[in-house]
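stuck on this fold:
=====
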Amino acid sequence: MAELSETFKRLEQDPQGGSQYLLHQLETFFLPLLTELDAILDKRLVRTFLQCLVAIIRLRNNPQALWPSELGSYLEGYDGYASSAAAGTKRVGKLLRSVKWTVGLIDRSLLEKADKEVTKLKGQRKRILCLWDGNVVEKVESEKLEGLCPVLSSKAKRRGRTKRGLVFNWPALRRCG
């Protein structure tokens, strides 16, 4: 907790220096992943990946922040100043469409980091807690998603109504398990 308060003190005293400190912390945390990505991707795509992480953190309260067009509008240009939103969107698209990497790299990197932290805490004989989010996963507006069961909600009731163009009505929704 002392590290958090130190970060907030830096941000209050010197906002520019505090942001640089947070950027340094982010780069340090993701350094193994960035190094691995640098070996397989073009350096411009790695830079775009890091800028996307910064933009997601900056826009964490904005529900549209993960739209490629919105995310691209907050990326800096290669020369350090903001470029047009269309250029940033194109860079995000190139990063996402690249066949040289998959989400498995990110998953593996984060799991390795978590495993090291668990090993460290076990060595110090500290209690390890895992937070469990008990929210019910609800289907989106698509017709079928694998592995999810229906829930009773207003959205689920609305989806269960008769729709024009469908030959039959969907069966009544029931709770799982």
Q: What stands out?
A: The chain has two domains: 2-104, 136-177. The mean pLDDT is 76. The chain is about 55% helix and 0% strand.
